[in-house]
Structure to design on (348 residues):
């Protein structure tokens, strides 16, 4: 969830005791961290808007926390502040942050799109990773339960989702679907490319959830229809169609990652506010296509429905009755499907 306008004091409230850990992501080819979780393991929450937390923090805290130490390993620095105390061993949280940031940096070709992030961990008495928020490309705040296991961290989506918000420019409020949709769409792709989940897991999730993003009766396009389904999954569907359009227009020479890298190279991350026109212009220039403009015209300015069953068939995604999927590698867009979730060979 992308939080805007909150004060840093509201973000940073906690005990005087805080621990800072910095993880730098240079030379990621040699420092890559992989998850040992079984691909497609069950129990993960869906990428839906985090509801306001109803949990009671493990401790009610008033003082402003201050980092006590920092460790740096290269290009991007992640300062971890424990809001009172660490709910689980600090090494587990640090590994989780390192793994999540590495997945994103690899998608962006080795460099994390912002130089540093301050991440506040708020403890709760529950298990698992809970509510997450992002502000201004600089700060994250995520709730972690006292009963959270290493397996919970390995299959978590929240940290990757929130970190991705820091990688894309702020837009006008009516374009919030573009920001939330991008984090929702890219989170499983980054995890699949890094070996954290399987290709089949990604596509089964999309088959299960993408229909929530389709326009309903009276819909006026993504810029004018701001329901939960349209903001998160309509936005994800938009980026799916952009990714497909780029790959088809470029005949496989480019994908969405190239558009996003071009935006970042021009200074576009969560620390700046841009117009949607600027995002589209730079993204299309980076891929030498008109994909972003074409899909935006169809889906943001108008309802732009997508017939998902027909799309899955063209991609060679075969939904099964038990909720899994199988693949038809002879389908017209099978190669495109494979390219979306598989990291390119080194040097490609």
């Amino acid at each position: 969830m992308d939080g805007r306008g909150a004060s840093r004091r509201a973000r940073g409230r906690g005990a005087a005791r805080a621990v800072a850990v910095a993880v730098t992501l240079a030379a990621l080819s040699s420092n890559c961290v992989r998850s040992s979780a079984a691909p497609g393991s069950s129990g993960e929450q869906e990428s839906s808007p985090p509801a306001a937390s109803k949990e009671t923090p493990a401790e009610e805290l008033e003082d402003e926390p201050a980092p006590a130490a920092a460790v740096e390993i290269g290009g991007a620095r992640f300062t971890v502040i424990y809001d009172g105390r660490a709910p689980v061993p600090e090494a587990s949280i640090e590994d989780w942050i390192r793994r999540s940031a590495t997945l994103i940096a690899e998608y962006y070709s080795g460099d994390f799109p912002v130089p540093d992030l301050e991440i506040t961990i708020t403890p709760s008495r529950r298990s698992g990773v809970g509510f997450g928020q992002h502000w201004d490309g600089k700060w994250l705040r995520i709730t972690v339960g006292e009963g959270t296991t290493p397996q919970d961290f390995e299959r978590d989506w929240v940290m990757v989702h929130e970190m991705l918000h820091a990688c894309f420019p702020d837009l006008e409020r009516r374009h919030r679907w573009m920001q939330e949709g991008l984090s929702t769409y890219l989170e499983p792709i980054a995890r699949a490319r890094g070996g954290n989940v399987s290709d089949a897991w990604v596509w089964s999730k999309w088959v299960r959830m993408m229909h929530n993003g389709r326009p309903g009766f009276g819909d006026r396009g993504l810029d004018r229809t701001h329901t939960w389904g349209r903001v998160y999954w309509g936005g994800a569907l938009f980026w799916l169609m952009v990714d497909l359009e780029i790959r088809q227009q470029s005949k496989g020479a480019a994908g969405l990652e190239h558009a996003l890298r071009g935006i970042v190279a021009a200074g576009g991350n969560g620390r700046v506010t841009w117009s949607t026109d600027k995002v589209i212009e730079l993204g299309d220039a980076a891929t030498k296509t008109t994909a972003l403009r074409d899909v935006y015209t169809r889906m943001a300015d108008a309802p732009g429905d997508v017939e998902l069953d027909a799309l899955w068939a063209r991609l060679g995604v075969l939904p099964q009755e038990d909720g899994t999927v199988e693949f038809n590698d002879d389908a017209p867009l099978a190669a495109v499907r494979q390219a979306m979730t598989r990291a390119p060979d080194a040097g490609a």
Remarks:
- The longest helix spans residues 228-249.
- Strands lie at 77-82, 116-124, 129-135, 139-145, 317-319, 325-327.
